[in-house]
Amino acid sequence: MARVLLADDHDLMRKLLRTVLSTRPGLEVVGEAADGPEAVELARTLEPDLVVLDLAMPGMDGLQVAGAVRAARPDCAILVLSAFDAEHAAAAALAAGADRYVEKAAGLHVAAQAAADLVKA
């Protein structure tokens, strides 16, 4: 079972992601963070296999969180799920240490499939 940490400052988005990811075999949401510093701390303490991360969060943005998670847990997969323009944001997210970028506009099922794919790899 792959352990997943959700990091998004919107409570509704975290709840929706939790609901959709829970329908995927092999994925278990083990924690939720509402800001960047909390995401980094939970990534260290919960030792997830995957962090699903928004770019726009208080305290630390998603790029900073991705870099901190990658440094602390190099084996942890990072999926950035954001509403920002994909071309610029995707390049920045990948450069910061993310493994994959998905636009929120693509839909939650696309994000869930990307999450499942990352933990299978």
From TrEMBL:
Keyword Iron-sulfur attached: no
Gene Ontology BP annotations: phosphorelay signal transduction system
Residue ranges annotated for the Response regulatory domain, each copy included: 3-119
4-aspartylphosphate modifications at: 54
A Pfam family annotated for this UniProt entry: Response_reg
Cross-referenced InterPro entries: CheY-like_superfamily, NreC/VraR/RcsB-like_REC, Sig_transdc_resp-reg_receiver, WalR-like
Superkingdom of origin organism: Bacteria
Keywords, in A-Z order: DNA-binding, Phosphoprotein
A molecular-function term among this protein's GO annotations: DNA binding
Cross-referenced PROSITE patterns: RESPONSE_REGULATORY
Name the record gives this protein: Response regulator receiver domain-containing protein
Species, as recorded: Solirubrobacter pauli
Lineage: Bacteria, Bacillati, Actinomycetota, Thermoleophilia, Solirubrobacterales
